[in-house]
Amino acid sequence: MAHINETPILHKGTAVNEDAAAGITGRDIRLSAANLFIAFIALLIGGFAGLLQGLVRSGFFELPSWISYYALLTAHGVMFILVLSSFFSIGYLYAGTSRVLGGLANKTIAFGWAGFALMTTGTLIAAFLIVTGNANVLYTFYTPMQAHPWFYIGLALIVVGILLNCIGMFITYQSWRKRNPGKLTPLFAFFANAVFVLWVFASLFIAVFVIAMVIPWAFGWVATIDPMMGRTLFWAFGHTLVNIWMLTSISAWYVAMPKIIGGKVFSDSLARVAVVILVVANVPGGFHHQILDPGLSVNVKFLHVIQTFMIIFPSLMTAFAMLATMERTGRAKGVTSLLGWWKTLPWSDARFFALIVAMFAYIPAGLGGIINASNQINQVVHNSIWVTGHLHLTVGTTVILTFFGISYWLIPYLSGRKMTPTINRLAVAQTVIWASGMLLMSGAMHINGLLGSPRRTANTSYNGHSAAADWAMYEMLMAMGGVILVVGIILLVYIWAQLAFFAPKGKTDFPIGEDYSPSDASPLFMDRWSIWVALATVSVAIAYIIPLIDFASGHNPGSPPFLMP
Amino acid sequence: MHIHRYEKLWLIIGSLILAVFLGILAFQTFFLEMGPPSHAEMIDPQTVRESEIFADTELKEIGDNEYEIAIIAEMFAFQPGDLEIPAGATVHFTLASPDVTHGFKITDTNVNVMVVPGHISKVSHTFDEPGEYLILCNEYCGLGHEFMANTITVK
């Protein structure tokens, strides 16, 4: 595309191996493409499950007796939250890392495929049990509800597969550092490594929970389980997952967006600081899902609120960096008026348009997150469909639209094709459709939540109660939003198929921005992950030691399993 | 590492707003006692139905227009059934589950608490406005979850 600035200015901060940047090797392409393929199938299945839910809840449609609303809900959650996000982040980050570090190490390829095999097998097992009605436990699978024991084996395989991918990423990252002493890793690789460090933190919590506690209990080898321990370990994983998506998304905002708009990275060092704060402060955020739980004192909960709020700081940094990048790019093009640079942005480029709409969605999404985490205010919204609306703004709009934007260069980059102006226009239309569908659906969910409507509940009038009657109109809007979103998914799959198999052959670049000025380069110690992992461990310890000791020493009599259905 | 003057300003203002916000939350929590329900007491889920607190589940007047009731949240009902209280009454709810995790939410109020098996939850509310309030379970608890509801009538 004409507006892309191709000036090859290099300096230490984001040194790129230009030989490798010409294109990545076939084996790296195959690994990334395989991961993306599963992610896209998950999007299709999860999307249609979501549409059916909207139609059922609003009373437009009644499900056949062989499948329940809650099976659809489980499928929607597992497909989007576990499968789509993990496979996509691996496919995208592996490809980008290969691009900036000059290829993946041999061992990384081996770990990558082994992880892929485990994750795919786990997904198939879990999906089969969900669809056959043997795992109506939702993606949070709160004990002592119990699914078919093999459902947990499926989840465990996914988690172990993710851990193998983490090892793969660390091998390539560290071998590059060994080969380039005294050099700072490229910013994209730094982001990718951070995401996989968070995957390790998240996976360890859920692995301990599923493998050491749930599986022995589900197979009947252990009689009881402590549900509070389970909630705590699950949300240490669940909320870390949220920041894994965010970090994956903002890697594109920080690194690719400047290149797409013809500018430069605003500040390499501040980007790395934001990443490090997210990694260090993130895990304890999980506790704000438990503000209304018994067994945690008011004081401990307030400590968790403060720790959760620390994540807001890097978001403020990101907001500043994004706008500053855009303004500087406009100024460099000669714009002098206060806001004139806004007009010089490449609005008709789908790669940019999807990203900036995602950024706009992040403003209300972030505000909603602050409300949810605000201790006593949480009572107003907890477990209402407001929270579902929040999730659809954060993951469903900010993260997913960023993923879509990424796919517009990632797929042709991997398939050796070029985006045509027609596909680009379709992709812009897709962004508009997606954003309007989400605005309608998520807006209706937010309002309905404030009116008291619960999340995760099949269609019911609560015996004709007047409170529930007020929700009906918004449930209809939710269903309409869902229909619009499915149109968006169908259009997207068409675009992806074009980009993967039919678009004209050619060279597409994986956009990697360069630093604005060498004085913004980070000090070398930023690359020493042992420091950040140690600090993150301290922050986890501050949040978790008191509650976990309380639960473990509280002599919880434990709960036997309750099979669903 | 160079930080732009505007960015410093933006981050300082942002952090100050956050600090003030946290200060207000802390004031409400610790001085106005508006903190979230956080009762800490254990109970064996398998003995909830026979236990001293929950076996005798009816509304008890314990003071001037002040009531107390123990409620069992189970698949898929709250026991005992619908409640009736005079306007202006303060009710102290004590809750436990004999089976899976449930939620206890009264619409048009801020009463909202998790009922996790193994723990006793407590929450109180003063019902000033007359009307029929809907009590519902807001945590998925199984295939009959959407039927788990009661009413509390304030006269």
TrEMBL record, chain A:
The protein's matches in InterPro entries, at most eight in alphabetical order, are given as: Cyt_c_oxase-like_su1_dom, Cyt_c_oxase-like_su1_sf, Cyt_C_Oxase_1
Q: Out of the domains of life, which is the source?
A: Bacteria
What's one GO MF term for it?
heme binding
Q: Would you tell me the Gene Ontology cellular component terms?
A: membrane
Q: Cite the Cytochrome oxidase subunit I profile domain residue spans from the record.
A: 36-565
Task: Return any one Pfam family short name.
Answer: COX1
Gene3D superfamilies for this protein: Cytochrome c oxidase-like, subunit I domain
Q: Which residues form the signal peptide?
A: none
Query: In its UniProt record, which GO terms are filed under biological process?
Result: aerobic respiration
Which positions, given as ranges, span the membrane? 36-55, 67-96, 108-130, 150-173, 185-215, 235-257, 269-287, 302-324, 352-371, 391-411, 432-451, 471-497, 529-549
Keywords, alphabetical? Electron transport, Membrane, Respiratory chain, Transmembrane, Transmembrane helix, Transport
* Protein name (database record): Cytochrome C
Automatic annotation (TrEMBL), chain B:
Which Pfam families does the entry mention? Answer: COX2 (PF00116)
User: Major place of localization?
Assistant: other
Q: Which SUPFAM superfamilies does the protein's record reference? A: Cupredoxins
Catalyzed chemical reaction(s): 4 Fe(II)-[cytochrome c] + O2 + 8 H(+)(in) = 4 Fe(III)-[cytochrome c] + 2 H2O + 4 H(+)(out)
By its UniProt entry, which Gene3D superfamilies does this protein fall under? Cupredoxins - blue copper proteins (2.60.40.420)
| InterPro entries referenced in this protein's UniProt entry, alphabetically | Ba3_CcO_II_C, CcO_II-like_C, Copper_CuA, Cupredoxin, NosZ/Cyto_c_oxidase_sub2
Briefly, what is this protein's role?
Subunits I and II form the functional core of the enzyme complex. Electrons originating in cytochrome c are transferred via heme a and Cu(A) to the binuclear center formed by heme a3 and Cu(B).
Q: Name the chain's protein.
A: Cytochrome aa3 subunit 2
